[in-house]
Amino acid sequence: MEFIWMVAEDGIPWRMPILEEPKDATQVEWEPVPCSASYSIRQIAASSKTAFALDRSGRILMLVLPTHIALRQKIEVYVNQRWYPLVKWRRPLPTDRSEYSDESGKLRRDLEYFEDSPVDGWSWEEPWRTNRDPRSFDDQGWQYAITFLGANSTNWDRQCKRHHFVRRKILRRHMRFTQHDKWIEFSPEDDSKMFVELACGGAEIMEDGEILLFALGTDGNIYRRAGIRTNIPNGTEWCQLPKIQNPSTNEEIDDVTLLAISPTLGTLICITWDGKMYQRKGISCAIPNGAIWRQIPTPKNRAVIGLTIGTEAIWCITADGMVWFARLEIDRRKMEHTNIEELNFQEVAKSGICRISLTKNDQVFCVGSEKEVMEVRTGIDSSEPSGKKFEVMKYEGNEKKRWISICAASSNLSNIPKYLLDPRVLQARQEIFQFKNTFWRKQILESLQISNDKSWEIMKDVKIEKISDDFGCENVERFRKIKAQLVVFGDGQRQMRSVNLRISEAVFEIEGERNIDCAMILSSFSGFQRLPQKYLLHILVKNEAQPISFAFTDESSRNSCQEIVDNIIRSYITTSARNSLGQSMWTISNSGSVRWHCLAEMDPKFEKEIPLSDTRSLTVPGNFESIDCGANRLVWAVNFAGDLYSLHPRFDPLSTLDHTFEYRQTDELRHELYEYQKSAIFRGFVTFQGQQKGVSAWMSKNEGAAPQFYSGLASKFWTWIDAEWRLEDSDEDSWEYSNEIDGNFEIGVGKGEGKIRRRCWIRRAKFETNKSVWAKVEGPSVKVVRVAKVENQNSVTVITLTRDGHLLLRLGVNRENFTGSSWSQIVTDSPITAFHIQKHEKIWCITTESLIIWKTLVDTEQDVWNYLDMNLPSRKVVVTQKDADICGSNDILYLRSRNVLFRIDSANLTCSDPYPMENLRQAVVNLQGQICLLGSNISIVNEWKVMLYEDKKTTIIQPRSMNRAMNFGKSIICIAMY
């Protein structure tokens, strides 16, 4: 959750949750977060995870926000021993490393020291445990070597041999941060330093979990807090920055009065006593202290007394009370502002502001100097970045508050919510929400659903042969005529010709061309063509290798045609014979669209399953990157931004009942447009003409040829975030060069030799709808979600893998509470790259160290895992961290590493030889244990042929029975099966 932080006149800090669509006023109430009576706060600097407060006496306090991910630090101690002929293994010689040390052996460790309580806010999580990784240690946790001298990780052996005279093992222990949402003073060793100003930011230039925290000391020096990471929120030490030098006299300047840093980039600016501004240049992840100080201009050379920096904006307050604004330009390759030394300030307001703060998206929050009230700047957007006017935020407390400081830098707010200015908006919204959740309204909807289901059961066997109107005419079909363009291929090129479509529930006719048997229509899926701009509809027909494609000039005509076709497919599925397993598949295309595939159809004549390529599918609204389905028809998905969503269980792809779902769904996508040029004699590089090897002058990533700086988007739900296209590197000469149009391009290679060059333009777009069937589940940024195929005591196990490698278990998930209730972390010793839920009993994981581990799901909070020895086969299984899957059924696991599949029998400890498949991208299993493979096509393996080698540790595998779909796998990026 994001907050706006404030400090009241009495020194008590406050915070206000920021939500774009709160349900009621209780979700965004102003909340005091007091410290102990001995502290009086004067300023707060906050990141998305931590807030830092400055006391009036100069002390710094820290508040770590509650999180679903535990903050843990791993402590490792190496136990070293030497072999003695009579007494066997004992402590090392005095000339060796100490008995307890670090990995290098240079630092002595004392176990008694680690038995004491950790620093404030931390507590020990478990007793000492031995590392028992079977790939590196024996069953007692030891590894062996000839000598300690020069010993590194490659010199140690997991088995003791005759020439081994030393051994070591690793004792591990974790300490956990336990004082969330409480103010804690920095470590005692920092008592000697007192401060007068704080600045926190740099989230986008630092590694994940790291931030930049600068402080102005009472001695006039500027310090940076080093070592701040996710699991070390208070950092390790203070590093002093070089002092500012007067450019005219080269004398050091001690009188710095204020610091400001961008919440996203590394732009640090300070103000001196005489109102001049200086920037610390060169701040980056590699050089967090920066390189040099440079003086920058002030608004019309006036003295500055207030300053704040956003991502693309800077605001100043001068000594005469004037408020100024200037736009910032960003070099995206270097991730820094480029026009700081030549800012063009414009006057915004006469006076009335004393403290000002910007969000990450440059929205303005401030403290009014006269009445000391909170104010916001309304009307800030891409067309008017300085906004329109300052308006007072409404505080609904019982007593009047006077404010002295504000911090909005941790918020991603892109516009000012209306409820900040008028609380009555929340009251009206709450009344609507209460109405929608009334018992009688829900009961009516449930009754309608039951009646609708019964009607389908009765009507699906009724065949209507004739339709009569009021005049007694028979055999009148209700046709819909739609104009379209038929996409055909001739001479290797795509061509279009105008046609009229005549469609009803029983007829699909392309006038003058052909009639399509509606019983043969399998699916329809939309597309978008940029050059020329057309809205496409592809219709897949049984026994035809390629879909029939139509182009429309407007989106509504395409959607109308697709709705009719989907109704034809829906009608066929609901009236066909289906088995009792309810098998289904969910897929996501490379454009993010979702489809549901019915795998449960049966051939009524032969009573056998229909081939995968002949199954029917329906489009489901939404935009996602990955998806999974499980017990009780629960479906969860992750969008491109890492947000998690759950499908409302009342939504049925086969139902025609129009339920009203009003969930808000958003997503964000970066469009990349490549500009190509070729070398011409005597003219240098010129604009590329025509096409060569499928490449034209302008190419949209994953979408082919595109117009220059196109503005059209795939649907009405997409809008542009950025006002215009910009170079990815913010450098006009940021070209990549190659000698082949379809070859590998490299930056700066062969500027005088490369025949072809290209550069990348980028522009961000936002997906947004308020009528979604998907409900958002709050939590950290997610990489993938898995839903158990089997129910467990009236609940369904749902586990997510966050983008930084943590596992989270969603509690309380069932059909009634389909979004669950809360999160519980599944603690692991190392970050996870892939995982698999075995029914609801076990979880299998691949760590970033390529180790396969597993545990039962009875006690998820205990860090006790079992290892699978992957050294058993004669050839090691190499697991990639970025592109790997693990799935399986019972004791059989399937491990995918890039385009290679391994079959592992975890009970008999056998592993197969690699089974390569073309373009293999994903492997999943269904409830029956069948594995589905996504490659150039989609294949379901019903049975494997497994043969053991003589060593009985390695096997060879090949599919014995396979069901393959040849016609809808190429554009699919994710699959899920039930």
Which outline best applies?
Answer: globular
**Count of helical regions:** 4
Question: What is the averaged pLDDT score?
Answer: 85
CATH architecture of the largest domain: 6 Propeller
Question: What fraction, in percent, of the residue positions are helical?
Answer: under 10%
Distance between the termini: 34 Å
The figure for the number of domains is 5
CATH topology of the largest domain: Neuraminidase
Stretches where pLDDT falls below 50 for ≥5 residues? 462-476, 872-876
| CATH-assigned homologous superfamily of the largest domain | TolB, C-terminal domain
Assembly annotation: single chain
Query: Major sheet: size, sense and barrel closure?
Result: 9 strands, antiparallel
Radius of gyration from CA coordinates: 32 Å
Q: Structural class of the helices, strands and pairings?
A: mainly beta
In total, the number of strands is 76
Beta fraction of the residues?
A: 35-45%
Structure description:
The protein folds into five domains: about 1-65 and about 180-420, TolB, C-terminal domain (Neuraminidase); about 70-175, no CATH class; about 480-525 and about 540-625, Roll (PH-domain like); about 670-770, no CATH class; about 790-970, Methylamine Dehydrogenase, Chain H, CATH 2.130.10. It starts with a strand and ends with a strand. The longest helix is centred in the middle third of the chain and has 21 residues, at about 440-460. Strands 49, 50, 51, 52, 53, 54, 55, 56 and 57 form a nine-stranded antiparallel sheet that branches. With about 1000 residues, it is mainly beta.
